[in-house]
Amino acid sequence: MVLQALVTVTVFAAVGAGAGLLWFRLWTPPSGVVQSGQWFIPDEAGLRAEFSGTGLYVVLALVAGLLVGAVVAVLLDRSELVTLACVVGGAVLAGWVMYRVGIQDSPPDPRALAPPAADGTVLPGDLTLARSTPFVAFPTGALLGYAVLLLVVPKRGSQGRPDSPEAAFRDPRDG
Q: Which residues contact residue 143 at a Cβ distance below 8 angstroms, ignoring those fewer than 6 apart?
């Protein structure tokens, strides 16, 4: 079970790193302008681009969590409670890793660069999350994927075991 726990958490962390790279690659930084020592986004397209970082994080984290949770439910099903704990912990770790990897190559915060810059200087926005609520996306997707497949897919090797639910309802005369 310890090996299963380590594999589960490692898979989540690796997928979180990959999702972070994808998040950064798909994101387009908004352009803003410095005016009176403050950074402003001058148009509606720039505002949409600034929100796209958070929205893209949520979508990628949900999908990645859903897929990894489903795979873990099917392949690593030795102990459901241990796996559930590892899915929750691994998904939280994956969301944090995704964020850290995604922002690693992001442009610096334009709000910090704006005060000494001249008026009219164009600065790209940074990749960040608007609030901390998007961090629940990875665990939500993972738990959903895990729960659905746990309920739908029968546990491997449960057919011949005498302690399985199927064996309790089998007629002993059927062999």
A: 65, 69, 87, 88, 91
Q: Is the separation of the CB atoms in 7 and 88 below 8 Å?
A: no
State the Cα–Cα distance between residues 154 and 157, nearest whole angstrom.
9
Per-residue pLDDT reduced to its tens digit, 29-72: 888 889 888 888 777 776 677 788 899 999 999 999 999 999 99
Q: Is 159 inside a domain boundary?
A: no
Number of domains observed in the structure of the chain: 1
| First and final C-alpha spacing in the chain | 33
Whole-Å CA distances, 40 to 11, 21, 86, 110, 149: 40, 27, 43, 9, 46
Identify whether the C-beta of residue 119 lies closer than 8 Å to the C-beta of residue 35.
Answer: yes
Whether 138 contacts 98, CB under 8 Å: yes
Q: Is residue 166 part of a domain?
A: no
Q: Could you list the residue range(s) of the whole structural domain that residue 40 is in?
A: 2-153
